[in-house]
């Protein structure tokens, strides 16, 4: 599995499809948190929203790296659709890790904050929650679930709008609402951990759907 994840990441790097979502993430975090002197919880909300968009884009790119013929070859070489789907999910999570670090450090460089370990823990939880949710959306909007890129983009936009604007809808809208409520970080760490678990479950469910569709179409 390690070799498969390394292959997926190497292919992504060589394709340079990571550049646009990386630039989007950096630009959003910088603009939304520049000269910020408010509570870090609101800053984490901005970084989480940027992570949601970037993770969706990156996962869509990872899942759609190969055309159908090349994908069939990779599937056979890696031992089946399940291993390929698992490798794609793990690669997406690996990509989200450096973005999480960037999302924690960049606001501290462009704003004025005095973070505590609890603040950083909450920020990591928030970004990973949005990262897992974005990866789930990316899997559902990419091949083999959606074969045409235009339809996949439309589906991703609809899902992202529902997740971010659906009032009280976990994990994303509920998370952003709580983070924007100017609570103390210590008050939100536990509930955000539960939302992270829910987001991980959504990612697992999306991987199951993607695997089932791939098996059926082959």
Short description:
By secondary structure, the chain is an all-alpha fold. It has helices at 2-15, 19-33, 40-63, 68-78, 81-110, 117-141, 149-165, 172-179, 185-217. The two termini are 22 Å apart.
Describe what you observe in this structure.
Helices cover 81% and strands 0% of the residues. The model has no long low-confidence stretch (mean pLDDT 91). The protein has 218 residues and is mainly alpha-helical.
Task: List the main descriptive attributes of the protein structure presented here.
218 residues, mainly alpha
Poorly predicted runs: none
> Which percent range fits the helix content?
over 70%
Instruction: Give the overall pLDDT as a whole number.
Output: 91
Return Rg in Å: 17 Å
Largest sheet: none
Strand/helix succession: HHHHHHHHH
Total number of domains: 1
Number of beta strands: 0
- Terminal Cα separation, in Å? 22 Å
What structural class do you assign from the helix and strand content? mainly alpha
- Could you say which overall geometry the principal axes of the C-alpha atoms support? elongated
Count of helical regions: 9
**Share of residues in strands:** under 5%
Show the helix and strand layout:
Elements: H1 2-15, H2 19-33, H3 40-63, H4 68-78, H5 81-110, H6 117-141, H7 149-165, H8 172-179, H9 185-217
Helix pairs in contact: 1-5, 2-3, 2-5, 3-5, 3-6, 3-8, 5-6, 5-9, 6-7, 6-9
